[in-house]
Input
Amino acid sequence: MQFPEYRARRLRRTETLRSMVREVQLDHRDFILPFFVRHGKNVRNPIASMPGVFQLSIDELLRDLEEPVERGMPAIILFGIPEKKDPVGSEGYSKSGIIQQAVRRVKDTYPDLVVITDVCLCDYTDHGHCGIIRDNDVDNDQTIELLARMAVSHARAGADIVAPSDMMDGRVAAIREALDEAAYEWLPILSYAAKYASAFYGPFRDAAESSPRFGDRRSYQMDPANSDEGIREAALDVNEGADLLMVKPALPYLDVIWRVRNTFDLPLVAYNVSGEFAMIKAAAEKGWIDGDRCMMEALTAIKRAGADLIISYHALEAVRILQGDSPRQRKK
Ligand code: PBG
Output
């Protein structure tokens, strides 16, 4: 069929027609909302590079979960800022660690909310790397033992899904084995399968206070130029027992999302990371773009590329728009 018999514009004439032939529709169930949690009470520290995102103490976190839960959002992912950092990231796998405490309280208050925990040492180590340092680099095999310990301690606190983000080799198998041994054979692993060494994590590292004190993460996170390798990484994680796969970041890696989608049939998560969020916020603040429309377009693109679920700092704002109401008055 071709012009003039075929006219593509016929189905674009009205919003109702457009909505009938829309291929991808965002939904509140598509989103996972990230939170940064730290010790204390009444703590609500703004993060300069992430407007509207805060480091929260547990009491404040519980308050901020009210609206997403009311709106039917299914899940959150938690990142912790410890009291004290050390070379081996002890608080990361301590029973009284910030994440362990937060998970217990959140699950007590909102039992149906799915709580995902990030399993990685970088928030807890004083050098800021994602594992144990030996000879100026992260030692793989020692690190995966600690990650397995961390995953089990999250499970004991009540986590619903554990999400290793460290990019060590063999971590999914090590975590699976440790969880099974501790009788958490039912607990799913969401693997950050293709995670790139990205400059788009900049604002997150302010939020989580997790910048490496020396060097960078290029000896463990992936080279942004590689997508075949992304498929290989995902295949390894599938073999090791991952239940869900993740590609991260999202927008600069839509091709990788698409390839992983078409190669594996596991549920696929995309992480719309802090730098992607900050760019839209900054340009909107300057009045250079329409922030809400750019946000919805970006999230739609991530779903169109093949993501089943999207981790995004925009998630609550997007859901407010999807549910057609203005930001509600928050009860304090
Ligand atoms: C921990 C971790 C990072 C992010 C999620 N988990 C930071 C990093 O790898 O340096 C980044 C998320 C974001 O930028 O929003 N390893």
